[in-house]
Design goal:
Radius of gyration: 14 Å
Strand content: 15-25%
Number of helices: 1
Helix content: 10-25%
Number of strands: 2
Length: 59
């Protein structure tokens, strides 16, 4: 089995998009549901021509 690559440091990304969670995004324990993460990634996609290294910042 191959080793997992180390994640890039925060400084490697030029842009961050803060996303505030909605009530329906969280489960009973206050955790963001896994399916919601995919919608966050879709939210950050529309800007690749302008900012190819955008990253979503979770709050």
């Amino acid at each position: 089995m191959s080793e997992r690559a180390s994640p890039l440091p925060r400084e490697a990304f030029a842009v961050f998009r803060p996303i505030t969670t909605r009530w329906m995004d969280n489960d009973a324990y206050g955790h963001v549901n896994n399916v919601v993460y995919y919608s966050y990634f879709d939210t950050s996609k529309p800007l690749p021509a302008q900012q190819p290294t955008s990253c979503v910042e979770f709050r």
